[in-house]
Design a protein that fits this description.
Number of strands: 13
Oligomer: single chain
Radius of gyration: 17 Å
Largest sheet: 11 strands, mixed
Shape: globular
Number of helices: 6
Strand content: 35-45%
Order of helices and strands: EHEHEEEEEEEHEHEEEHH
Helix content: 10-25%
Amino acid sequence: WDLIMLKHAIYQTGTLNSLLEAVYDGDTTLEYLASKGNLGLGALDAIDGELIICDGEFFRADANCRLNKLPKEDKTPFAIISHFQPSLSFDLNADSFANLERQLLAQLPSLNLIYTFKIKGVFSQIDLRSEECTCRPYQRLIEILPDLQRTCTFEQLQGTLVGVYFPNYLAQVNVPGFHFHFVDAKQEIGGHVFGLNLSAGVVEVQIIHELDLNLIASAEFYQANLTRNITDEVTQVEKLRSGV
């Protein structure tokens, strides 16, 4: 427990429930986000691909899970980032996403805290997804994601998983449980992770005690219905594989 006496913070813009309610345009630039950290993940305006932040570099994974670096003027409606300082590290291998989750849970000192992860390794297989952008008038995420998403599978890649863990009691704010994005060592391939076989990896974990939450200043955010129970929708969105 001595290792968690130093309290680390994480910054978030937007909320999970606002993203589900079609608040797809943010007011936070990537330039500002960079002042808040160097490791994180999120979405981009108009759901135009997946956002991955690794070692201070900001990447967009397009609908084909191909990466490009982003201009600092781009904005995000939902992102999480920290100045990554690992609290603990260990080696592991995992033949499935579920196995990875089980091993990580066994190492966490409490399920009531937030965690960030950087996992470098060799992946025998990794299953990724990203999305085409959507257009106005915006519809709720659960309605459009099956048509927007694209999935890709890659084999024998070296790369990094960038991840967060949020406790269940913050389920309206961010995805409860584990959420991972990926960037390969060549910075060419990436996206949201829904399956993997990690043949050898090194895990670094940052324990988070402080959440700095920035709410979006826009008419869409102000008028969004953020009171509904989103548990079932989060499960559908996070576990969605195909349907396109």
